[in-house]
Amino acid sequence: MQRLNLLLAVLILFFTSCEKSSNNDIIIDEDVITFVELNASQYDVNILDSLVTGKFEKFSFSEGDTVIHDNWDVAFSGTTIIVNGGDSYSVNQPERTGNAAVYIATGVMTDIRTVDLSKLEQDNTSGPAIIDDLGISEQGWASYDMSTHILSPIPGRILVFRTHDNKYAKMEILYFYDTTNPTPSNGDFGGFYTFNYVYQSAGEINF
Question: What pLDDT, in 10s, does the model give residues 60-95?
Fold first, then answer.
């Protein structure tokens, strides 16, 4: 009888320990995708107003690649980033056929867990939702170093998107040049975006 009681006590302790461990917080790894050197380098900058003109490279989160059709989510040309939603402010921009919008969140990529719908903005006739001033104000996604003439992504700036078809994504831009340590005087050229992103294909606002 004493052996039976001891066995029951051991079993109870074992199952209790298993139950406690199953209640621990579970850390879920995000499906982070890295896109390397999206070529948005075919652009010209008007030095008077910093307006960028040129070819826009369109990107689809659902396809995970650049596209040439109208179901794009975000497009790049030089330092300019536009979304497939709202109004155009320049004649050279691709036609907007969707409901895309964007805002910039501050923090670590993995900490941006929910889309704040109240912050989403679309492009309009006055300009893009994402500030495009060559990084001078540091209110957008990048900063500009006047001494080196290098544009660098600002750490902790996460672009949160509503896609053209009302799904969601978040993006962290890592590099803007065709090399990780650019020297513009040596011919390293800007307009090559390398970025991480997470795409929420279910249309939920939580990542």
Answer: 999 999 999 999 999 999 999 999 999 998 888 999
How far apart (Å, rounded) are the C-alpha atoms in residues 199 and 160? 10
Cβ-proximal residues to 78 (8 Å cutoff; 6+ apart), any chain: 40, 41, 43, 45, 52, 54, 190, 191
The structure tokens 């999206």 sit at: 38
Q: CA–CA separation, 144 vs 153, rounded Å? A: 9
Query: What is the C-alpha separation between 178 and 30, in angstroms, rounded?
Result: 27
Determine the residue type at 181: N
Instruction: Specify the 3-state DSSP secondary structure of 186.
Output: helix
pTM of the model: 0.81
DSSP string, 74-121: EEEETTEEEESSB--SSTTSPPP-S--EEEEEES-GGG--B--GGG-B
